[in-house]
Automatic annotation (TrEMBL):
GO terms for cellular component: membrane. InterPro entries: MFS_dom, MFS_sugar_transport-like, MFS_Sugar_Transporters, MFS_trans_sf, Sugar/inositol_transpt, Sugar_transporter_CS. It comes from Boletus reticuloceps. It is a multi-pass membrane protein. Belongs to the major facilitator superfamily. Sugar transporter (TC 2.A.1.1) family. It comes from the Eukaryota. Signal peptide: none annotated. This is General substrate transporter. Its main location: membrane. It is found in: Membrane. It catalyses: myo-inositol(out) + H(+)(out) = myo-inositol(in) + H(+)(in). Residues 11-449 form the Major facilitator superfamily (MFS) profile domain.
Amino acid sequence: MLSVTLKIYLIASYTSLAGMLWGLDTGSIGPLTQMAQFANSIGYISSSQLGIYVACILLSASFSSLCSGHVADVISRKYGILTGGLIVAVGTVISASANNFPALICARLITGIGQGQSISVVTIYLCEIAPQNIRGTVATMLQLLITVGIAAGYFIAYASSRLDGSLAWRTPFIIEACVAAMLSMGMAFMPFSPRWLVQHGRFKQARDVLSKLRLTTKEVDEELNSIKASLEEEGAPHATFSEVFSKRYIKRSLLGIFMMGFQMLCGIDAVLYYAPILFTQAGFSSQRASFLASGISGIVNLVFTIPAQLLVDKWGRRFPYIAGGIAIASCFLAIGSIYAAHGGKANGEVYLNGKPAQWAVIILIYIFIANFAWSWAVVTKIYTCEIMPTRLRAKACAFQQLANWVVNFAVALTAPLFLRSSPSGPYFLFGTATCFVTLVCYFFMPETKGKSLEEIKGLFEKKNDAVESTSTA
């Protein structure tokens, strides 16, 4: 018989296939658009068209992520993930069978609707099923599977590039469709979130779920009573979107939106989406070599995510975020300085002179990915989800994910043009933005390590309560 902890990890691993789907797309979309077979099938696409194609998934994901809070509250976290997976399956099947560029755009928009919904809801689901002592590790399962997907996506594209004809670039989409179908079928057997069940007055089912996910009856009773008390204190069981920005919650809401949005301005997705372009500019002349270098970046991303997942509940949230931010900014500012000193532009292409400078940039890109993987990638989704109360969590996370997708869309859309128009500009922009985010979080980010979801609200409300009691007196 499975232990309770192992059961939670298995549930988290399976539901996090939604993250693997996102990773597969992130890792493969850049390389497959650089394949000669893709150009032969679809025709040549310019840098601006490339940006539109890669980024349009984020546009539809932005819309669906905003709706995901309502979906997760109405049909449950479980069915929110299931339906998101089905939509991804439809979108990727259309992508795999498309014969022209407009069809690919439409398919990618459909895929984005499913991705935005499933990713947003999984984060909530994992935070709500996990006990507080392993919540960080369980919630980071999503990020771990994203990194597995990114690494796999790079190497799937590298391997399929050797195939003849359009099957070379269609293969990654076929694999994504299979994973999406598997996610949807398996979600039918996953438990409901106990907090969602309590929110809807289904107390017996909530107790049944908790009894399977907690070690003792005492733990079940204490957590169930805590959830009930928290919901009663918060008022009406169903929250409105406007309530997310009410006086009581606005500080934590804005902090979560800020962290999720500005996380993308560190440049991680510009690196992951357009790794072949970055490595070509840094000195790799052949397509195969740039694909392989991109695959190595996926491995670095995965390797440095694993220890972070295991240690996040010991490190807490502030240390990884602030230390990681300093390291991320340092890498990009150093790359920008190298391009400013040794780079240039000729015939519409950015170049970098000298082997030492080229290898320094390549190594710094890998160091940047490693630092993002162990810090911001792991902490941001956990922290922004856990600081919101149960009744508001789904709708608040929808706003947070919306900010993430919108900023990500802007970065993905403009990055190809930016990377090819300015040798050092993109790196200085991303490095400076990371410094700003790190500074803000240093002053306004309280630690949540080891606290239950119901206890965390006190970190944001103590100060307000103290002010109110003083004014009343």
